[in-house]
Amino acid sequence: MGWSSWHPFSFRDEQQQLQGLDIELLEAIFNRADFEARYIEMPWARTLRELEFGSLQITMTANKTVQREQFARFSIPYRHESTVLIIRRQDKARWQGVDQLSELLPLTQFTIGVLRDFDYGADFRTFMQAPQVTDRLIVRLRMEQLIKLLLAGRIQGVVMDPMGMQELALAGISLDKLTTLLDIQQNPVHLMLNRRTTTEPQLQRLDEAIRALMQSPQYAQILARYHYPLR
């Protein structure tokens, strides 16, 4: 199982124990499926490469895309995540009136930061393919790099899950300087398995375990611990 450190989804506590919303959900799923996870920490971009090559069997917090389905199979969703576009609070008046992604297309001065190899859902995928946007996407490996560019005014927006703001606060970034410009969409989140090193029956066991967990009180209890909104 490949994983990356990102509060509140997966991280090590002061005792170096693995914690987080996705870790707890995954352990509850695996317990029901009678599987055991061995965790290997690595950046997300590398996780995707290692899973594609087969040295990792599974990862979590994955969006389903056509490209990924060439080498991976996906579980049913085990939660949903939000995708928003954040800006500097001081720029809120400047972009007032922008209510949807399409309204950013003619704004050539609006550049957007995204993480390498991250998928932000179908709506943003379509937006990225517009010719007006191609040269206005700034790609980095770490969110802290993008936020520094944003605060310095070198880019105008960053796409992220708002729950990930906890990681920024822990990195010493003042959240008072940031605000949300757009709610882009809600995306289903899956477990992603390598096609060659896992089997369809294993996937079926995971799907059955996810259904059982989501119908149990434990599911709501885990989400509540992380102040995660119930759907």
Could you please describe the fold and organization of this structure?
The chain has helices at residues 21-33, 44-53, 66-69, 122-128, 143-151, 165-170, 200-214, 217-225, and strands at residues 2-3, 11-12, 18-19, 40-41, 58-62, 72-74, 79-88, 112-115, 137-140, 157-160, 178-194. It is of the alpha/beta class. The strands form three sheets. Strands 5, 6, 7, 8, 9, 10 and 11 form a seven-stranded mixed beta sheet that branches. Helix 4 links the parallel strand 8 and strand 9. Helix 1 crosses helix 7 (200-214) and helix 1 runs antiparallel to helix 8. The longest helix is centred in the C-terminal third of the chain and has 15 residues, at 200-214. The two termini are 27 Å apart.
Short description:
The protein is an alpha/beta fold. The protein is built from eight helices and eleven strands. Strands 5, 6, 7, 8, 9, 10 and 11 form a seven-stranded mixed sheet that branches. Strands 1-4 form a two-stranded parallel ribbon. Strands 2-3 form a two-stranded antiparallel ribbon.
Mean pLDDT figure: 92
**Amino-to-carboxy terminus distance:** 27 Å
Strand content: 15-25%
Largest sheet: 7 strands, mixed
Element order: H for helix, E for strand: EEEHEHEHEEEHEHEHEHH
Q: Bin the helical content.
A: 25-40%
| Continuous helix count | 8
What gyration radius follows from the Cα positions, in whole Å?
A: 18 Å
Low-pLDDT windows of residues: none
User: Which secondary-structure class do the elements indicate?
Assistant: alpha/beta
Number of strands: 11
Silhouette:
globular
